[in-house]
Amino acid sequence: SSSYTLDGFIAALQQRINQMTNDSGSSVSGVKVEYDRLKNSFQFTSGTTGSNSFIQVSGSSTWGLANVSAGRGTTSTWIHPSQYSELVNGLPVAKYIDARGEETSSADGFTNISAAILVIDDDTPPQITSQPPSQVTLASNSVSFSLKATGKDPLYYFWSRDGNPIAGATGLSYAANNVQVADSGSVFTCLVSNMFGTALSSNAVLTVLASRPNCFTEWFDASPHTNDLAGRMFTFTPDASPSQYAVCRQSASSFPTDPAGGTVVSLSDDSSVAVTLSGTNSVSIYNRRTNAFFIGSNGYLTLNSDDLHYTPSYTNHFSLPRVSALFCDLNPANQGSISWKELGDRVAVTYQGVPEYGHTNGNSFQAELFYDGRIRVSYLELAVPLALAGLSAGQGLPILFAPSDLSASDPCVVLSDPDIATQPQSQSVAAGASASFSVTAVGTPLLSYQWLKEGVALVDGGNIAGAQTPTLMLASVQAADMGSYSVTVSNLNGRITSAKATLVGPFAPAILTQPAGRQAAAGSTVTFTLGAAGPGPLRFQWQQGGTNLADGGKISGTRTVSLAISNVQLAEMANYSVVVSNANGSTTSSNAPLTLWPLVSWGHNGYGQADLPSGLTNVAAVAAGHYHSLALKNNGTVAAWGAGTSYAGTSPHFGQSAVPATLSNVTSVAAGYYHSLALRADGTVAAWGASSNSPGTSPNYGQALVPGFLSNVTAVAGGAYHSLALKSDRTVAAWGAGTSNTGANPHYGQ
């Protein structure tokens, strides 16, 4: 009816055992129960000494004991009572005997020996009560794996490595000596057995590191180990090393991120505030990425949750994913400011002039979290001699932890653009064979690679592997794989694209670069070019609208990679393509259209009047004569072509295309049969061509002799042999043929 002390329990147990009787009235007697403190076990001693003596605990089921042998032999037997359990759905469940003698898994009411009978189960198989833990160590060290198990003695132990038994490893523990990096990843297990069964331990994994990881944490706790971070900047860049970051240092005289314009937060002593980044921006500490973090008043940034600890210690520091810029008891409520600023590539948190609690001297430092995972911490003025600085993954004190010396970090290397040291090389392969392209690049790590075919990025899959590595692999090469390959190499500082390497095989030519459409000024020379690869010799045939071209006249290069057309005019406006062939077949390019701009001319071209001059651009107006053409340009000058580029005096060359050298500021033009007119911005008129110097005989009828009184002209027009001018007063002036109506050609009073 009450709880028992150990001595009271022993006495009660001995009394109850000696009171047990069976159904015929035989009883147990002479059993002595003692407790061995050294072995932490009960000793049951029988009251007989014969060679067949034994302790036979018998009784009805109400005792919970039915013919269970507790021990036999001529000497005392050690009994180790243990909780009996059974597997239920693969899990061990403790079992008890209730007051009615029924088996139960409930321990309710078992507060004294009257309500709960001690079950001595002597036939138990092994049970592992403490599994061997995984181990992390440095190369050349020794490690030990051990476990704890219970069960009927004797217990036997058999250790294995990667499933293979280890000779002689038959104890509770196994020691591996002088382990090396090559041993890393080994899996150790132990099989425990006795005469009633076996138990296999869980896996214990061995990790061996070549050197101690840098935990990037320094605690300035006492002289001479005092704070030496002022005037320094530290950049932590994620990498694949056991330390997970590389750190470098450089001097700092100002904050890398100007805090001006940032969001000022109001923090009291030992407080924090949550910050959520905009859009898809996120930050990371030890690969724990999030778009939210907490700014603590005591000089640190945390992920997952806020923190109010003000005492710097390794325990506090490593309790959360954290950047401890200056972990100490700061008090921004006293003076100074804390602000954060979100930029396109990072978020910066700045502490300016924040003093330690109970002090007035300020501390100024800045922590920047880059979206690509980098972390940068800068220190300007520091007045706190005792503090903690560093990074934390938030998983407790790291294995193999040792304090860092941040100020002894390597100097930061100025970022350099990537450069190609060895270009990929062209190659020829057999159908169905494999091919590979490799590049060697230098530059500030980490370098990234992206292979391209004809300028289009490749991805792994099908017969392509290594599309984002220094070596591109192509399996079972076919015709579709022919072409040019290049690779873009990039880092945080820039990018560069390699030269093109061509892959050819026993296939029809592959077109690497299609001819591009051209828009050209009439009269200019146009070139179409194509890039092709394949087993040589390669043959080319250029076509216009699907019809083969031949060299001659304006056209050259019809059987080369480049087609040239000179003095392009309306007749050359068409689609151009090229057929490339070799011994394996032919391939036709896409069409490349040729268009003219800004002018097109057509019609009779006996004197070149429909051939636009080369380079003619910026045209504002045009006019056409009998055998010549005029163009007014935006700059107020006039271009002319066709008949009459000089005054030969023979038809039709009467100087109508010989524009006066001093003519400028023209606003409109007009043309007659053999003469030209130009209206200047000042309202005067210029004329040239037939009758400008020899009037009276055909076609010289004075149509190019501008009247001396003529001014304030707003428009001009040219007839076959006469000229007209509209003045600002709405009157008209006329000159040339037809000043009277004689009835004789060409004088009709026009």
General description of the model:
This protein is mostly beta strands. The strands form 20 sheets. A seven-stranded antiparallel beta sheet has the order 22-21-33-32-31-30-23, with no helix packed on it. Strands 11, 14, 15, 17, 18 and 19 form a six-stranded mixed beta sheet that branches. A six-stranded antiparallel beta sheet has the order 20-34-29-28-27-24, with no helix packed on it. Strand 8 and strand 9 form a beta hairpin. The relative contact order is 0.05.
Could you describe the largest sheet, including whether it forms a barrel? 7 strands, antiparallel
What general form does the structure show? elongated
Helix fraction, binned, reads under 10%
Q: Uncertain spans, ≥5 residues at pLDDT below 50?
A: 48-81, 109-122
Multimer state: single chain
Category by helix and strand content: mainly beta
Count of distinct strands: 67
Radius of gyration: 50 Å
Strand content: 35-45%
Total DSSP helices: 2
> Average pLDDT across residues?
86
Sheet with most strands: strand arrangement = 22-21-33-32-31-30-23
Instruction: Give the termini distance in whole angstroms.
Output: 145 Å
